[in-house]
Amino acid sequence: MSWIAVTDPSTPGGLAPCPGDASATGSALRRGSLQIEAELGRAHLAEGTLLLLHVPGPRPRHLSIQITAGSRVVLAHRLGRRRYQVTLDRGAAHLSGRIRLTLCWDMVAGRGLLSLEEAAEGILVQKEFPDPLPLIQEDIALLCNGAGGVRLHGGIDCVAIADTLEPVGLRPSIAAGTPVLTPTGPAPIETLRPGDLVKTRDNGSVPVRWAGGHEVPALGGAAPVQLLAPYLGLAQDIIVAPEQRLVIGGADVEYLFGADEVLIEAQWLCPGPHALRRRGLCVLRYHQVLLDRHEIVEAAGCPIESLFVGQIRKSPRVLATSCLHALPAEALPLHDIPARRLLREFEAATLRSALLSR
Protein backbone atom coordinates (compact mmCIF):
# COMPACT_ATOMS: atom_id res chain seq x y z
CA MET A 1 0.00 0.00 0.00
CA SER A 2 1.11 3.62 -0.34
CA TRP A 3 -1.17 6.64 -0.11
CA ILE A 4 -3.88 6.04 2.48
CA ALA A 5 -5.43 9.51 2.54
CA VAL A 6 -5.33 12.51 0.22
CA THR A 7 -7.36 15.67 0.64
CA ASP A 8 -7.71 19.09 -0.96
CA PRO A 9 -8.58 21.45 1.92
CA SER A 10 -9.48 24.22 -0.53
CA THR A 11 -12.34 22.14 -1.99
CA PRO A 12 -15.63 21.52 -0.13
CA GLY A 13 -15.87 17.88 0.83
CA GLY A 14 -12.18 17.55 1.59
CA LEU A 15 -11.28 13.89 1.87
CA ALA A 16 -10.64 12.04 -1.36
CA PRO A 17 -11.57 8.34 -1.68
CA CYS A 18 -8.12 6.76 -1.58
CA PRO A 19 -7.32 3.12 -0.86
CA GLY A 20 -6.64 2.37 2.79
CA ASP A 21 -8.35 3.28 6.02
CA ALA A 22 -7.70 6.65 7.60
CA SER A 23 -10.40 6.27 10.25
CA ALA A 24 -9.26 3.25 12.26
CA THR A 25 -8.49 3.98 15.90
CA GLY A 26 -5.95 2.67 18.36
CA SER A 27 -3.11 2.19 15.88
CA ALA A 28 -0.21 4.24 14.61
CA LEU A 29 1.80 4.53 11.43
CA ARG A 30 5.28 3.62 12.58
CA ARG A 31 6.63 4.24 9.10
CA GLY A 32 5.16 6.73 6.68
CA SER A 33 5.08 10.12 5.01
CA LEU A 34 3.07 13.33 5.32
CA GLN A 35 3.15 15.55 2.24
CA ILE A 36 1.79 19.09 1.96
CA GLU A 37 1.47 21.13 -1.23
CA ALA A 38 0.98 24.88 -0.82
CA GLU A 39 0.95 28.01 -2.95
CA LEU A 40 2.60 30.65 -0.78
CA GLY A 41 2.51 33.34 -3.43
CA ARG A 42 -1.26 33.09 -3.52
CA ALA A 43 -1.55 33.14 0.27
CA HIS A 44 1.18 35.75 0.95
CA LEU A 45 2.59 33.62 3.76
CA ALA A 46 5.91 35.19 4.74
CA GLU A 47 5.58 34.02 8.35
CA GLY A 48 2.94 32.09 10.24
CA THR A 49 1.30 28.72 10.74
CA LEU A 50 1.08 26.38 7.79
CA LEU A 51 -0.46 23.48 9.70
CA LEU A 52 -1.63 23.02 13.27
CA LEU A 53 -3.15 19.95 14.92
CA HIS A 54 -3.70 20.16 18.67
CA VAL A 55 -5.66 17.69 20.80
CA PRO A 56 -5.53 18.45 24.56
CA GLY A 57 -6.14 15.93 27.29
CA PRO A 58 -4.30 13.52 29.60
CA ARG A 59 -2.17 12.43 26.63
CA PRO A 60 -1.99 15.59 24.50
CA ARG A 61 -1.15 15.43 20.82
CA HIS A 62 0.36 18.25 18.81
CA LEU A 63 1.68 18.60 15.28
CA SER A 64 2.57 21.97 13.79
CA ILE A 65 4.52 23.40 10.89
CA GLN A 66 5.49 27.05 11.15
CA ILE A 67 7.26 29.36 8.73
CA THR A 68 9.38 31.87 10.61
CA ALA A 69 11.58 34.83 9.70
CA GLY A 70 14.39 33.99 7.33
CA SER A 71 12.42 31.22 5.58
CA ARG A 72 12.88 28.72 8.39
CA VAL A 73 10.42 25.85 8.54
CA VAL A 74 9.84 24.66 12.11
CA LEU A 75 8.22 21.27 12.70
CA ALA A 76 6.99 20.37 16.20
CA HIS A 77 5.46 17.00 17.08
CA ARG A 78 4.22 15.73 20.45
CA LEU A 79 2.58 12.51 21.62
CA GLY A 80 1.97 12.56 25.36
CA ARG A 81 5.33 13.11 27.05
CA ARG A 82 7.36 12.45 23.91
CA ARG A 83 8.15 15.36 21.66
CA TYR A 84 10.68 16.76 19.21
CA GLN A 85 11.28 19.91 17.18
CA VAL A 86 13.13 20.27 13.87
CA THR A 87 14.15 23.48 12.10
CA LEU A 88 14.84 23.50 8.37
CA ASP A 89 16.69 26.60 7.15
CA ARG A 90 15.91 27.58 3.57
CA GLY A 91 18.51 30.36 3.70
CA ALA A 92 16.47 32.98 1.84
CA ALA A 93 14.70 36.21 2.71
CA HIS A 94 11.27 34.64 2.30
CA LEU A 95 9.45 31.67 0.83
CA SER A 96 7.17 32.26 -2.13
CA GLY A 97 5.45 30.40 -4.93
CA ARG A 98 4.61 26.71 -4.83
CA ILE A 99 6.28 24.50 -2.24
CA ARG A 100 6.07 20.84 -1.30
CA LEU A 101 6.87 19.79 2.26
CA THR A 102 7.43 16.10 3.00
CA LEU A 103 7.87 14.59 6.44
CA CYS A 104 9.08 10.98 6.46
CA TRP A 105 9.50 8.90 9.60
CA ASP A 106 10.72 5.38 10.34
CA MET A 107 10.33 4.29 13.95
CA VAL A 108 12.25 1.04 13.43
CA ALA A 109 15.28 2.79 11.96
CA GLY A 110 14.90 5.70 14.39
CA ARG A 111 15.23 8.29 11.62
CA GLY A 112 13.11 11.10 10.28
CA LEU A 113 13.51 13.42 7.30
CA LEU A 114 11.96 16.81 6.60
CA SER A 115 12.21 18.02 2.99
CA LEU A 116 11.26 21.32 1.36
CA GLU A 117 10.95 21.49 -2.43
CA GLU A 118 10.56 24.59 -4.57
CA ALA A 119 10.23 22.99 -7.99
CA ALA A 120 10.10 26.24 -9.96
CA GLU A 121 13.49 27.24 -8.53
CA GLY A 122 14.97 23.73 -8.64
CA ILE A 123 15.56 23.85 -4.88
CA LEU A 124 15.50 20.92 -2.45
CA VAL A 125 16.49 21.41 1.20
CA GLN A 126 16.49 18.51 3.68
CA LYS A 127 17.04 17.93 7.39
CA GLU A 128 17.51 14.46 8.85
CA PHE A 129 16.75 13.97 12.54
CA PRO A 130 16.70 11.12 15.10
CA ASP A 131 13.86 9.58 17.09
CA PRO A 132 10.75 10.65 15.13
CA LEU A 133 7.23 9.99 16.38
CA PRO A 134 4.51 8.04 14.56
CA LEU A 135 1.31 9.55 13.21
CA ILE A 136 -1.71 7.93 14.82
CA GLN A 137 -4.82 7.03 12.85
CA GLU A 138 -7.08 9.45 14.73
CA ASP A 139 -4.82 12.34 13.72
CA ILE A 140 -4.76 11.19 10.10
CA ALA A 141 -8.55 11.40 10.07
CA LEU A 142 -8.47 14.85 11.70
CA LEU A 143 -5.95 16.17 9.17
CA CYS A 144 -7.90 14.90 6.20
CA ASN A 145 -11.36 15.90 7.39
CA GLY A 146 -10.33 19.30 8.73
CA ALA A 147 -12.15 18.55 11.97
CA GLY A 148 -11.88 20.41 15.28
CA GLY A 149 -8.38 20.89 16.59
CA VAL A 150 -6.92 21.27 13.08
CA ARG A 151 -6.02 24.50 11.29
CA LEU A 152 -4.66 24.53 7.74
CA HIS A 153 -3.45 27.66 6.01
CA GLY A 154 -5.47 28.82 3.01
CA GLY A 155 -2.51 28.33 0.69
CA ILE A 156 -2.55 24.55 1.21
CA ASP A 157 -4.32 22.68 -1.58
CA CYS A 158 -3.17 19.10 -0.97
CA VAL A 159 -2.47 17.08 2.18
CA ALA A 160 -1.47 13.46 1.63
CA ILE A 161 -0.43 10.64 3.96
CA ALA A 162 1.31 7.41 2.95
CA ASP A 163 2.30 4.30 4.87
CA THR A 164 5.61 4.23 2.98
CA LEU A 165 8.71 6.43 2.87
CA GLU A 166 7.93 8.51 -0.19
CA PRO A 167 10.74 9.73 -2.47
CA VAL A 168 11.29 13.47 -2.82
CA GLY A 169 12.78 15.62 -5.54
CA LEU A 170 12.88 13.90 -8.92
CA ARG A 171 9.66 12.14 -9.83
CA PRO A 172 8.14 10.47 -12.91
CA SER A 173 5.69 12.68 -14.78
CA ILE A 174 4.06 10.87 -17.74
CA ALA A 175 0.87 8.87 -17.17
CA ALA A 176 0.70 5.16 -17.89
CA GLY A 177 -0.58 4.32 -21.35
CA THR A 178 1.20 7.22 -23.05
CA PRO A 179 2.82 5.93 -26.27
CA VAL A 180 6.51 6.81 -26.62
CA LEU A 181 8.12 6.48 -30.04
CA THR A 182 10.71 3.70 -30.43
CA PRO A 183 12.53 2.42 -33.56
CA THR A 184 9.81 -0.24 -33.92
CA GLY A 185 6.89 2.11 -33.32
CA PRO A 186 5.04 3.58 -30.32
CA ALA A 187 5.21 1.68 -27.02
CA PRO A 188 3.33 2.45 -23.78
CA ILE A 189 5.80 4.17 -21.49
CA GLU A 190 5.20 1.71 -18.65
CA THR A 191 6.44 -1.17 -20.85
CA LEU A 192 9.88 0.35 -21.48
CA ARG A 193 12.83 -1.26 -19.71
CA PRO A 194 16.56 -0.45 -19.35
CA GLY A 195 18.30 -1.27 -22.61
CA ASP A 196 15.23 -0.63 -24.78
CA LEU A 197 15.70 1.95 -27.52
CA VAL A 198 13.67 5.14 -27.83
CA LYS A 199 13.81 7.67 -30.65
CA THR A 200 15.01 11.17 -29.76
CA ARG A 201 14.73 14.48 -31.59
CA ASP A 202 18.47 15.20 -31.55
CA ASN A 203 20.43 11.94 -31.31
CA GLY A 204 18.47 9.24 -33.08
CA SER A 205 17.72 6.01 -31.21
CA VAL A 206 19.29 5.79 -27.75
CA PRO A 207 19.07 3.16 -24.98
CA VAL A 208 17.01 3.66 -21.85
CA ARG A 209 19.28 3.91 -18.80
CA TRP A 210 16.45 3.66 -16.24
CA ALA A 211 12.67 3.36 -16.46
CA GLY A 212 10.31 3.57 -13.54
CA GLY A 213 6.97 4.62 -12.21
CA HIS A 214 5.49 5.98 -9.01
CA GLU A 215 2.08 6.90 -7.64
CA VAL A 216 1.66 10.48 -6.44
CA PRO A 217 -1.18 12.68 -5.14
CA ALA A 218 -3.23 14.35 -7.86
CA LEU A 219 -5.28 17.01 -6.08
CA GLY A 220 -5.06 20.80 -5.89
CA GLY A 221 -1.90 22.17 -7.46
CA ALA A 222 -0.76 18.60 -8.07
CA ALA A 223 -3.75 17.89 -10.35
CA PRO A 224 -2.48 16.45 -13.64
CA VAL A 225 -2.58 18.23 -16.98
CA GLN A 226 -4.40 16.82 -19.98
CA LEU A 227 -2.65 17.84 -23.20
CA LEU A 228 -5.23 18.10 -25.95
CA ALA A 229 -5.04 16.72 -29.48
CA PRO A 230 -4.64 17.84 -32.22
CA TYR A 231 -2.60 20.67 -30.71
CA LEU A 232 1.13 20.32 -29.94
CA GLY A 233 1.45 17.60 -32.60
CA LEU A 234 -0.65 15.18 -30.56
CA ALA A 235 -2.40 12.25 -32.21
CA GLN A 236 -4.35 11.68 -28.96
CA ASP A 237 -4.82 13.35 -25.60
CA ILE A 238 -2.21 12.46 -22.99
CA ILE A 239 -1.95 13.04 -19.23
CA VAL A 240 1.20 14.45 -17.64
CA ALA A 241 2.26 15.92 -14.30
CA PRO A 242 2.02 19.72 -14.00
CA GLU A 243 5.82 20.09 -14.04
CA GLN A 244 6.39 17.90 -17.13
CA ARG A 245 8.02 20.03 -19.81
CA LEU A 246 7.24 19.90 -23.51
CA VAL A 247 8.74 21.53 -26.59
CA ILE A 248 7.13 24.50 -28.31
CA GLY A 249 8.59 26.20 -31.37
CA GLY A 250 7.49 28.60 -34.07
CA ALA A 251 7.50 32.29 -34.88
CA ASP A 252 6.31 33.40 -31.43
CA VAL A 253 9.11 31.48 -29.73
CA GLU A 254 11.75 32.84 -32.09
CA TYR A 255 10.50 36.42 -31.67
CA LEU A 256 10.17 36.30 -27.87
CA PHE A 257 13.20 34.21 -26.92
CA GLY A 258 15.54 34.15 -29.92
CA ALA A 259 15.42 30.35 -30.08
CA ASP A 260 13.90 27.81 -32.45
CA GLU A 261 12.36 25.82 -29.59
CA VAL A 262 11.91 26.07 -25.83
CA LEU A 263 10.73 23.81 -23.01
CA ILE A 264 7.63 24.87 -21.08
CA GLU A 265 5.92 23.21 -18.13
CA ALA A 266 2.53 21.76 -19.01
CA GLN A 267 0.79 23.57 -16.15
CA TRP A 268 1.66 26.94 -17.65
CA LEU A 269 -0.44 26.22 -20.73
CA CYS A 270 -3.59 25.87 -18.60
CA PRO A 271 -6.35 26.69 -19.16
CA GLY A 272 -6.56 26.94 -22.90
CA PRO A 273 -7.09 25.05 -26.14
CA HIS A 274 -3.78 23.22 -25.69
CA ALA A 275 -4.18 21.94 -22.13
CA LEU A 276 -6.48 21.76 -19.13
CA ARG A 277 -6.34 20.51 -15.56
CA ARG A 278 -7.76 17.03 -14.97
CA ARG A 279 -9.77 17.21 -11.76
CA GLY A 280 -11.41 14.52 -9.67
CA LEU A 281 -8.47 12.13 -9.38
CA CYS A 282 -7.07 11.17 -5.99
CA VAL A 283 -3.73 9.68 -6.95
CA LEU A 284 -2.14 8.92 -10.30
CA ARG A 285 0.72 6.68 -11.38
CA TYR A 286 3.34 8.36 -13.56
CA HIS A 287 6.30 6.92 -15.45
CA GLN A 288 9.52 8.31 -16.94
CA VAL A 289 12.68 7.23 -18.73
CA LEU A 290 16.24 8.29 -17.98
CA LEU A 291 18.66 8.56 -20.91
CA ASP A 292 22.38 9.29 -21.08
CA ARG A 293 21.56 12.87 -22.06
CA HIS A 294 18.57 15.05 -21.42
CA GLU A 295 16.63 14.34 -24.60
CA ILE A 296 13.44 15.22 -26.42
CA VAL A 297 11.28 12.15 -27.07
CA GLU A 298 7.95 11.84 -28.82
CA ALA A 299 4.84 11.01 -26.78
CA ALA A 300 1.77 10.46 -28.98
CA GLY A 301 3.36 12.89 -31.44
CA CYS A 302 4.17 15.59 -28.88
CA PRO A 303 7.86 16.38 -28.25
CA ILE A 304 8.48 16.17 -24.50
CA GLU A 305 11.53 15.84 -22.27
CA SER A 306 13.03 12.72 -20.75
CA LEU A 307 13.99 12.77 -17.07
CA PHE A 308 16.47 15.54 -16.25
CA VAL A 309 18.69 14.56 -13.30
CA GLY A 310 21.21 17.39 -13.34
CA GLN A 311 24.09 16.73 -10.91
CA ILE A 312 22.26 14.41 -8.53
CA ARG A 313 24.98 11.75 -8.70
CA LYS A 314 27.24 14.21 -6.85
CA SER A 315 24.75 14.46 -3.96
CA PRO A 316 24.52 11.02 -2.31
CA ARG A 317 22.08 12.11 0.40
CA VAL A 318 19.68 13.63 -2.13
CA LEU A 319 20.00 10.58 -4.39
CA ALA A 320 19.22 8.26 -1.46
CA THR A 321 15.82 9.89 -0.93
CA SER A 322 14.85 10.14 -4.62
CA CYS A 323 13.04 7.76 -6.97
CA LEU A 324 16.50 6.72 -8.24
CA HIS A 325 17.69 5.54 -4.80
CA ALA A 326 18.18 1.94 -5.98
CA LEU A 327 20.81 3.00 -8.53
CA PRO A 328 24.47 3.45 -7.57
CA ALA A 329 25.73 6.97 -8.19
CA GLU A 330 28.28 5.77 -10.74
CA ALA A 331 25.44 4.33 -12.87
CA LEU A 332 23.83 7.74 -13.29
CA PRO A 333 24.64 10.21 -16.06
CA LEU A 334 25.47 13.86 -15.51
CA HIS A 335 23.04 16.24 -17.19
CA ASP A 336 24.98 19.49 -17.36
CA ILE A 337 22.57 21.39 -19.60
CA PRO A 338 18.94 20.82 -20.61
CA ALA A 339 18.04 19.82 -24.15
CA ARG A 340 16.34 23.19 -24.74
CA ARG A 341 16.07 26.50 -22.95
CA LEU A 342 13.78 26.19 -19.91
CA LEU A 343 11.16 28.90 -19.62
CA ARG A 344 10.51 30.48 -16.24
CA GLU A 345 6.93 31.09 -15.18
CA PHE A 346 6.77 34.74 -16.27
CA GLU A 347 8.27 33.83 -19.66
CA ALA A 348 5.77 31.01 -20.04
CA ALA A 349 2.93 33.44 -19.30
CA THR A 350 4.14 35.70 -22.11
CA LEU A 351 4.31 32.80 -24.56
CA ARG A 352 0.88 31.52 -23.52
CA SER A 353 -0.62 34.96 -24.17
CA ALA A 354 0.96 35.02 -27.62
CA LEU A 355 -0.37 31.55 -28.44
CA LEU A 356 -3.89 32.41 -27.25
CA SER A 357 -3.98 35.61 -29.30
CA ARG A 358 -3.65 33.68 -32.55
From TrEMBL:
Residues 173-310 form the Hedgehog/Intein (Hint) domain. InterPro entries: Hedgehog/Intein_dom, Hint_dom_sf. Pfam families: Hint_2. SUPFAM superfamilies: Hedgehog/intein (Hint) domain. Residues 1-22 are annotated as: Disordered. This is Hint domain-containing protein. It comes from Rhodovulum bhavnagarense.
